[in-house]
């Protein structure tokens, strides 16, 4: 198949869409990526890209077409302009840059914002190709949950936009089963909705993985590692509340790897609370380095704010954590917490419950090493069963083929 991927984020930014493109190429498909200028999560254009943009024009054999876009920067207004600039550039420059390139199917990667679907739908009309939309985030629910938009009228407008996009897609995929109900409320034809979760990345954690030198050894202590985006949704205030409650426990430390819109706040807050010795902030590293940081971990932490929309979400890091074979500590509700409990892969408390997390850490630390190892192995087995990468890649490939067949059948029916 000739696959056009439309994504506001792409390599060298770290997202699963990179792995997806690589897999499709290995399976013999022809892939083109329409994306923007790399600037996530810091909000500044990557220095390497500014120095040599041509070095980022191909990825593993896929042509990467980048359209102009305003970097995220800081602040809500700047973020809105960032979203809108990709919509405009993708819709105006995208068709021109893609002229003469036949497309069988368009795949939309949407961790947020949903507006990435607008240029994809427009291109679908121009190219006469089906659009498959993978919803990893729910709009307008997430806007309300994050407090970005409070006006019911504006949220209603966003809802109409979501409905416009979904109803012009051949298939809409939801990353969790709980997503499907929300998607259905904006999608006229419920038969177009499918469940498709994120896959467990094959995190190699063999004896040859050396612990990251950026973090000092802590042989006699218990290390909790958080890896990923540091944003509003991850509820860092509650995480620091737990760390502060365990401040006098010299055998517990926290390593938070990554960055994001709350990074500066986190660094300042760690200093203000006097947690510099308990909470380590090594910064952002490529995904290939994550096993070296996991190698320090006695437990891997996943957290989400308390809100109904987040309770429907399975954070992508959950699958990766499970595959690492290390116990999980969860501070979240809904499907994410259910996965941890169903897998018997760790301990989970309610979202926003810093006190509950502070209680869970010493409980896990007091467990015999064999019990924690058993939790880790439980998690890996669960990931291999429920989120196996090869099986999900096969399934997605079949969904793309289904979209092509359905689209052609509808086109023939219209011509009659």
What's the total count of β strands? Answer: 14
User: Which class do the helix and strand fractions yield?
Assistant: alpha/beta
CATH superfamily of the largest domain: Glycogen Phosphorylase B
Total domain units: 2
What is the name of the CATH architecture of the largest domain? 3-Layer(aba) Sandwich
Largest beta-sheet characterization = 8 strands, mixed
Strand order, largest beta sheet = 3-4-2-1-5-6-7-8
- General shape: globular
Backbone CA Rg:
22 Å
Q: Beta-sheet strand percentage?
A: 15-25%
Count helical runs: 16
CATH topology of the largest domain: Rossmann fold
Summed over residues and divided by their number, the pLDDT gives a mean of 93
Unreliable runs, pLDDT <50, ≥5 residues?
none
How many angstroms separate the termini? 26 Å
* SSE series: EHEHEEHEHEHHEHEEHEHEHEHHEHEHHH
**Which CATH first-tier class of the largest domain would you pick?**
Alpha Beta
Portion in helices:
40-55%
Features:
eight-stranded mixed sheet; six-stranded parallel sheet; 16 helices; alpha/beta; 416 residues; Rossmann fold
What is this structure, in a nutshell?
With 416 residues, the protein is α/β, with parallel strands linked by helices. The chain has helices at 16-26, 47-51, 76-97, 117-127, 141-145, 152-166, 179-184, 236-245, 263-272, 290-294, 308-311, 316-324, 334-343, 354-365, 369-386, 389-415, and strands spanning 2-6, 30-35, 58-59, 62-66, 105-110, 131-135, 171-174, 193-195, 222-227, 252-257, 279-283, 299-303, 328-331, 346-349.
